[in-house]
């Protein structure tokens, strides 16, 4: 495993209590609001799949699918998915997934949110670079999105 190509790491300090950031992460509907996926009426349950249509303009035809791996209240949420699975005619089900882990740490003036997505070295070579590149820039945007969401809710 080459950590330079196998994992994406991001972090952001959010000026809000950990409980508020946790709600934005662990409540499926709230998560969907900032992440850009329709999750109305859905719940995150460890071991269970969750899916909903992407709400980002131009990508509404894509179904976002994850399996929730772990939930440790106000500390950790993780899921597995097929990264950059945007071609509806392609069957990704036989490909390895990546693991997305969100961790929260309370700070003196808010919450540190750490994100790690790992497992890219297992993605088929023909899509690996694109998946890594697109998810890398995507996580940059998603860190801004959750910060703005928490600030406005």
From TrEMBL:
Protein family: Belongs to the AHA1 family.
Domain Activator of Hsp90 ATPase homologue 1/2-like C-terminal: 15-150
One Pfam family recorded for the sequence: AHSA1
Record-linked Gene3D superfamilies: 3.30.530.20
Protein name: SRPBCC family protein
Protein species of origin: Dyella lipolytica
UniProt cross-references to InterPro entries, sorted A to Z: ASHA1/2-like_C, START-like_dom_sf
């Amino acid at each position: 495993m080459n950590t330079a190509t196998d994992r994406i790491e991001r972090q952001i300090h959010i000026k809000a209590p950990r409980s508020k950031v946790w709600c934005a992460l662990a409540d499926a509907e709230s998560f969907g609001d900032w992440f850009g996926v329709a999750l109305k009426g859905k719940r995150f349950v460890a071991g269970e799949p969750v899916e909903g249509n992407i709400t980002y303009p131009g990508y509404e035809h894509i179904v976002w699918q994850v399996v929730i791996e772990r939930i440790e209240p106000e500390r950790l949420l993780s899921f597995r998915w097929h990264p950059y699975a945007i071609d509806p005619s392609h069957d990704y089900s036989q490909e390895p997934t990546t693991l997305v882990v969100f961790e929260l740490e309370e700070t003196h003036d808010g919450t540190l949110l750490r994100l790690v997505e790992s497992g890219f070295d297992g993605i088929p070579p023909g899509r690996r670079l694109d998946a890594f590149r697109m998810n890398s820039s995507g996580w940059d945007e998603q860190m801004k999105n959750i910060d703005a969401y928490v600030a406005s809710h």
